Amino acid sequence: MSEFDKKEDIDAFTEYYRNFNHTEEIKNLANFLNYIALYSNNKVIENAVALLTGHTAKGLEFDNVFLVSMNEGIFPDFRAKKGRKLEEERRNCYVAITRTKQKLFLSYTERKDTYYGDREHQPSRFLKEMELI
Questions:
Q1: Higher confidence at residue 49 or residue 11?
Q2: Chain centroid to CA 68: how far?
Q3: Which of 33, 41, 75, 122 is the most buried (most CB within 10 A)?
Q4: Would you give the distance in Å from CA 56 to the centre of its chain?
Q5: Domain of residue 80, residue span
Q6: CB of 129 closer than 8 Å to CB of 93
Q7: What is the 3-state secondary structure (H, E, C) of 44-107?
């Protein structure tokens, strides 16, 4: 890597940081790294697959969105039994769904191989609430 390439990288990093500071994202390292991964020259990277959580998808849109593992204990998370935590999971689900511009794909598993062996897995209550199952 030449000195010129290093300077370009530092300049690009600085520009990403400046732009990130003007977003409404919570300012932490994880969100900044997600921002860098998703953006190139202030545009979403074309022809790429972005893997992110529903929470980090706020403010972004994608032609196709895949929500995988829409299972009870995963989405919503097993710690979100009721109250505010469950409502936050519901909002994250809504955010993830509304990031879709063209096609939305939702999936869940009926069985899962876990550390404790093969287990039945229930679909997410959110799929039931949307009357999809």
A1: 11
A2: 11
A3: 75
A4: 5
A5: 49-133
A6: no
A7: ECCCCCCCCCCHHHCCCCEEEEEECCCECEECCECCCCCHHHHHHHHHHHHHHHCCEEEEEEEC
* 9 and 68 part of one domain: no
Between 12 and 48, name the one with better pLDDT: 12
Report CA dihedral (10, 16, 22, 24) to the nearest 10 degrees: -130
Residue 66's closest CA among 90, 110, 96? 96
User: Which residues sit opposite 106 in a β-bridge?
Assistant: 67
pLDDT score at 72: 93
When divided into structural domains, the chain yields a total of 2
Are residues 22 and 40 both part of a single domain? yes
Question: Tokens 């009926």 label which residue?
Answer: 110
The 10s digit of each residue's pLDDT in 49-75 is: 777 777 677 778 888 999 999 999 999
Residue entry with tokens 């919570």: 26
Same domain, 25 and 68: no
Whether residues 2 and 60 share a domain: the answer is no
- Asked if 58 and 110 sit in the same domain, the reply is yes
- Is pLDDT of 112 > 80? yes
